[in-house]
Amino acid sequence: MRALGPGSVSSFLKIILDVVFAALWIALGAVALATLAALLFSFNPDLFPDIMSRNAAVVATRGPLFAGMLLVFGLSIGGVLVIVHSLRQIFTTLTAGDPFHPTNVRRLRLIGLMLAALEIGRYCVWGLSPFLPWIKDVKPDFSLTAWFSVLVVFVLAEVFREGARLRREAELTI
């Protein structure tokens, strides 16, 4: 089976990325709705009288914290969405048979930056976890694999940059 072009492995992976991209948008919409509901419930608990329980006052006071937690979760979904979108664009060029398209360098750098941002965001959640009573047993864990992945993506971006440069030079020769 071919790696590039129509009907290749790259076109199959592009289809999978399209499905994941749609699922991420749905998840981001669900998180946005849940955040809105948490804020509405915290500011006006009478909006949901059927859901009211004896713990409603506690839930209402923690609503903004819960909404903030959902916002952080939504931001992480947004980061993954940016990564998957960039991968979709890269695989579009692979399916077209043009792996060293000049914009793939920028896309790979963006993927590397988003991977690094997601990892730093994870460290921020660890730093805030002692102040959030419902998060228990969170132990900081430096992930060498995550940072290695970031470095690999940046190295691949430079490989693609060099490939694009060589392709431009080849196009100029007779």
Summary tags:
0% strand, mainly alpha, 2 domains, 174 residues, 4 helices
> Strand fraction band?
under 5%
Q: How far apart, in Å, are the first and last alpha carbons?
A: 32 Å
How many β-strands, per DSSP? 0
- Element order, helices and strands? HHHH
| Spatial extent as radius of gyration | 22 Å
Helix content: over 70%
Q: Overall 3D geometry?
A: elongated
Secondary-structure blueprint of this entry?
Blueprint: H1 9-43, H2 56-95, H3 103-128, H4 144-172
Helix pairs in contact: 1-2, 2-3, 3-4
What do these coordinates show?
- With 174 residues, the protein is mainly alpha-helical.
- It folds into 2 domains: 1-76; 100-174.
- 75% of the residues lie in helices and 0% in strands.
- It contains 4 helices and no strands.
- It has helices at 9-43, 56-95, 103-128, 144-172.
- The model has no long low-confidence stretch (mean pLDDT 84).
Question: How would you summarize what this structure contains?
Answer:
With 174 residues, the chain is mostly helical. The chain has helices spanning 9-43, 56-95, 103-128, 144-172.
